[in-house]
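FAQ: What does the model actually see?

It sees only this:
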Amino acid sequence: MNVRQYLETGLTTLDTFLRQIAPKIRQHHHESVVSGLVSDEDKLKYLKAELFRRVRDNKPIDDITKAIALLLEIQTLEDSRNNSPGVQIDNLIVSTFWLGIAVTTLSFAATWSCGRSQSLFCQRARIIPTIIVRQFQEPTKPKSLLPERLH
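And it is asked to produce this:
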């Protein structure tokens, strides 16, 4: 087989596959819309389009306007919930946590790349890893305050 035949066979197979899967994709999208697995923004777009169709056809629009109002109210509540002090404190804590992890990771990477260098940067980069390593080492036994002969 030459390159042209391989290419033709591949494209034919791809075409067959896409023709088989297209109805499944359309059905899945329809089921997602019907079951409510669509984002609120998309629901609003669909409802507004339906509202315009009904207005153009002089059909009743009360149920559509109620649904749009409900979705807008839900979005407003979610927005106000995202701006609450509790959520802002939570975001601050999570951001601080990830910043600490990033600084620690960068300190370990800088310590590794410095090797035995004694430059000011390398000395400062070793501060955090040294503290962490000391924390997980075996503790040294404290010296007794009593003289040796009293033991």
